[in-house]
C-alpha cells in the first residue's frame, strides 16, 4: 500500500530535523525535546559568534578574513533558515495538512507512480547534496592531521575559541566542538532545504496528475456512433471531470503560494548569500596549494554550494514548465466536441494559465535556470574584481 504523501516526500528531512530537535514537538517529553533543540541551536549561534570575534581580531589581513568569511556566511545562513523554520511551524502544520487533502490523493497506480517518481528524483538530488556536504566536513576534519606543520596542533576552522590548541584536553574539546557543530550544520542545511524542495516537487507531481486527468476527457463524435442519451451523459461526465481538474489546479496554486509565503525569505537569503560564498570560495581555491587536503575540501565545498543553488533553480524551473505544459494539454483536449459551458470554462482557465506558476524567492527572484546562470555570472564578476584588487596589493 502506498504511504501517505508527507511520508513519501518528507520522510528523510522529517527524520533528520526530528533527531536534531527542530521538527514539530512530540506528544511526550516535550520539555526535554525543547532543551535539546535549544542546545543544538546554541552550538550554531555560538559558532557564528566565534567567527565574528575572529574576523574582528584578524581585520586587515585579507587572506585570514576571506578564509573565515565563507564559513561565516554559511553558518549565518544555517542559523537564519533554521530560526525562520522554527518561527513558521504553524505554516508547516498547514502545509502538511494540505498535502493530505483528498484532492491531492492518487486515484490509480499511474498517479502513484507520478508521486513516487518526483519524490525519488528530489530525494536522489538531495542525497547527492548531503553526501557532498558531509564529505566536505570530513575533509575539514582531516586538515589538522594532514596539514599540520612541525607537529603544531591546529583546529579545523579559523575561529576564536575560549580554549587553545596547545594543551590537552582543551584541544580535544575544541576539536570536538567544531566538528560537532559543523556536522549538525550540514544536516540542518540539507534538511531545511529539502522540506521546501520536496514540497515544490510535490506540486510538480500534482500537475502531472492533473494532466493525466485532462487526457481522460473523452471525445464526443457527432456521428451516429453514440445515442443522444449516451452523448449527453458523456458530455456531462467530461464537464464534471474538467471541473475537478480545475479545482485540483486551484488547490495546487494555493499550496505553492503557501509554500512560497513560508520559505521565500529562506530561499532569498540563500540565493543572495550564494553570490558571496561562491566568490569567497573561488578566492580561497586560488590561494591554496593544488592537490592539498584544503584545496580538495574547498573544491568539494564549491560543488556543494553550486548543487544547492542548482537544486532550488531546477525545482522551480520544473514547476513552471509543468504549469505551461498543462495549458497545452488542456488545449489539445477534444474541447470542440463538448458543451458550450465546457468551452467557456476552458477559455477562462486558459486565460488564467497564461500566467504560469512561478516560485519566487523573496517574492521577487524567480527560481529558474536563467536565475542560476545569473547568480554564477554575478559571483564570477565579484570574484574577478576582488582577485584583481588582491593581486595589485601583492
Automatic annotation (TrEMBL):
<feature type="transmembrane region" description="Helical">
    <location>
        <begin position="125"/>
        <end position="146"/>
    </location>
</feature>
<feature type="transmembrane region" description="Helical">
    <location>
        <begin position="175"/>
        <end position="203"/>
    </location>
</feature>
<dbReference type="InterPro" id="IPR004117">
    <property type="entry name" value="7tm6_olfct_rcpt"/>
</dbReference>
<keyword id="KW-0675">Receptor</keyword>
<comment type="similarity">
    <text>Belongs to the insect chemoreceptor superfamily. Heteromeric odorant receptor channel (TC 1.A.69) family.</text>
</comment>
<dbReference type="GO" id="GO:0004984">
    <property type="term" value="F:olfactory receptor activity"/>
</dbReference>
<keyword id="KW-0716">Sensory transduction</keyword>
<dbReference type="GO" id="GO:0007165">
    <property type="term" value="P:signal transduction"/>
</dbReference>
<keyword id="KW-0807">Transducer</keyword>
<keyword id="KW-1133">Transmembrane helix</keyword>
<keyword id="KW-0472">Membrane</keyword>
<feature type="transmembrane region" description="Helical">
    <location>
        <begin position="267"/>
        <end position="287"/>
    </location>
</feature>
<protein>
    <recommendedName>
        <fullName>Odorant receptor</fullName>
    </recommendedName>
</protein>
<keyword id="KW-0812">Transmembrane</keyword>
<dbReference type="Pfam" id="PF02949">
    <property type="entry name" value="7tm_6"/>
</dbReference>
<dbReference type="GO" id="GO:0005886">
    <property type="term" value="C:plasma membrane"/>
</dbReference>
<dbReference type="GO" id="GO:0005549">
    <property type="term" value="F:odorant binding"/>
</dbReference>
<keyword id="KW-1003">Cell membrane</keyword>
<keyword id="KW-0552">Olfaction</keyword>
<feature type="transmembrane region" description="Helical">
    <location>
        <begin position="293"/>
        <end position="315"/>
    </location>
</feature>
<feature type="transmembrane region" description="Helical">
    <location>
        <begin position="16"/>
        <end position="38"/>
    </location>
</feature>
